[in-house]
């Protein structure tokens, strides 16, 4: 009959068998403990976040309620209406300023005859000639008189041109007349040659020309002035340059150039684009030039101007 071993060996094997289960159970207990600890930490963190968010929301809500109460107070409740009033007042002042500078432009661009002109006429008269009448307007000079020689009248015009009296070729008419038409001027009655000529001279006086620049804002078919009219004098025939026309800023608002008119004649879109690219307007000031620049307010990403 086979031997199964002693009771001591059997008991030892039983103890080893249960020891394995005991070790596994202890290991599972440790893992379970770790899981419980981690779970408690996670739950605590979630609860802490919830409490933090709740407190933060309460603080934010309290701040909003306080701000609403402040805005509803008499001190602030009329600010929006007051802002509208101030904007209208600013527009009124801008328009008033524009009117004043428009009036100033009328004064600045009015041609004024030089005080030296009569002296220049006197110095240009040849010794065998005299001026019977002369008339000076804002831009023209007209004079007539008599001379012994046909060429003396030409010399008179030549001397006036050398003195820069005229800005363009003059109109000169010379005709021979009878001595009796000359009058009772003693010096002329002593003319031994007994030749007399009547002449008339008329020409455009040399003067400055003026370039004026006005800026306007366009919005929904409404045009309002953007400040004053700028007027600058130039020598007739000289070149002029107006810089920085691509954009314009006023009271924190940026405006972009959208149209240009020169002497009330609108430029084409291609011409306006060229001006925007160069950011300037150039030209020759042969006469007074009136430039109108039209702008639209720049829009933000949200579409508001």
Compute the gyration radius: what is it? 49 Å
Mean pLDDT: 79
Count of β-strands: 13
Query: Whole-Å distance between the termini?
Result: 110 Å
Oligomer: single chain
| Beta-strand content bin | 25-35%
Helical residue percent band: 40-55%
- Characterize the biggest β-sheet: 7 strands, mixed
The rough form would be described as rod-shaped
Number of individual domains: 3
* Succession of helices and strands: HHHHEEHEHEEEEEEEEHEE
Q: How many H/I helices?
A: 7
Structural class by secondary-structure content: alpha+beta
In the predicted model, the low-confidence regions spanning at least 5 consecutive residues are: none
Core attributes:
Gyrase A, domain 2; 3 domains; 7-stranded mixed beta sheet; 4-stranded antiparallel beta sheet; rod-shaped
Descriptive notes:
The protein has 305 residues and is an alpha+beta fold. It has three domains: 26-56; 85-110 and 208-297, no CATH class; 117-204, Gyrase A, domain 2 (2-Layer Sandwich), CATH 3.30.1360. The protein is 44% helix and 30% strand. Helix 4 packs antiparallel against helix 5 (150-162). The protein is rod-shaped, with a radius of gyration of 49 Å. The termini are far apart. The mean pLDDT is 79.
Topology (SSEs and partners):
Blueprint: H1 7-71, H2 74-77, H3 79-108, H4 117-124, E1 129-136, E2 140-147, H5 150-162, E3 171-177, H6 186-189, E4 196-204, E5 208-219, E6 222-225, E7 230-235, E8 238-243, E9 247-250, E10 253-262, E11 265-266, H7 269-278, E12 280-285, E13 289-297
Helix pairs in contact: 4-5
């Amino acid at each position: 009959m086979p031997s199964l071993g002693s009771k001591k060996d059997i008991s030892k094997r039983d103890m080893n068998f249960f020891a394995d289960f005991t070790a596994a159970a202890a290991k599972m207990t440790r893992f379970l403990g770790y899981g419980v600890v981690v779970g408690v930490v996670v739950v605590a963190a979630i609860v802490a976040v919830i409490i933090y968010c709740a407190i933060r929301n309460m603080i934010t809500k309290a701040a909003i309620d306080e701000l609403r109460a402040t805005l509803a107070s008499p001190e602030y409740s009329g600010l929006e209406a007051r802002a509208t009033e101030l904007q209208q007042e600013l527009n009124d002042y801008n328009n008033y300023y524009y009117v004043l500078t428009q009036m100033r432009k009328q004064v600045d661009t009015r041609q004024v005859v030089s005080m030296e002109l009569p002296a220049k006429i006197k110095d240009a008269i040849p010794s065998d000639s005299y001026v019977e009448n002369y008339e000076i307007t804002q831009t023209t000079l007209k004079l007539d008189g008599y001379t012994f020689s046909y060429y003396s009248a030409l010399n008179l015009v030549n001397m006036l041109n050398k003195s820069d009296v005229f800005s363009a070729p003059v109109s000169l008419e010379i005709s021979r007349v009878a001595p009796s038409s000359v009058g009772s001027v003693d010096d002329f009655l002593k003319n031994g040659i007994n030749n007399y000529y009547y002449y008339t001279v008329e020409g455009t006086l040399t003067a400055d020309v003026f370039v004026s620049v006005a800026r306007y804002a366009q919005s929904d078919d409404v045009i309002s002035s953007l400040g004053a009219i700028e007027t600058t004098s130039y020598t007739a025939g000289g070149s002029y340059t107006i810089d920085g026309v691509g954009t314009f800023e006023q009271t924190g608002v940026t405006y972009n150039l959208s149209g240009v008119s020169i002497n009330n004649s609108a430029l084409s879109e291609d011409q306006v684009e060229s001006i925007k690219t160069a950011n300037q307007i150039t030209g020759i000031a042969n006469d007074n030039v009136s430039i109108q620049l039209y702008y639209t307010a720049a829009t933000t990403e949200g579409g508001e101007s």
